Amino acid sequence: MDAATIVGLLADPARLKVVAALALGAGTIEDVARLSGLALKDVALAARRLARAGLVHRDGHVLQLHADRFGAAARAAAEAAPTPEPLSADPAEDAVLSAFVRDGRLVSIPAQHGKRVVVLQHLVRVFEPGVRYPEREVNALLAVWHPDVAALRRYLVDEGLLTREAGVYWRSGGWVDV
What we know:
By secondary structure, this protein is α+β, with helices and mostly antiparallel strands. It is built from nine helices and seven strands.
């Protein structure tokens, strides 16, 4: 059973409640109805669908959840997932970036200075060399990465990657892709 099938089965609120009740120790249709607040008829219909899919074993009124199928589906999905593209050609930088950047967003600002510099050098690439940016635009560009735009702005200026004068910023450091 694959993860998509499990998610599809649990997308129905009644089936989700049945699985939750079984995971919490219910063993019969009546137990599930009592724990979930569902009508017996709704529990029976959901249990029948879950049993046909192989997520629940049903023997009359007795139900048993095949909880091991969740883990197996998760492992199979993880193995089938494509390897993410490296964020840097340098393996050490890529390791740092992979720890802090997920799906094009900064999950947290590194506390360690060396790691923070690696992240900031990656982030500053959104600013074009030679272009002047008002603070509002800098905030908008940084908000795509992380909600704490003030901290990112300050760190970029402190590291000499951006320069600020009279509320206008420009790129003044970091590598430039050519």
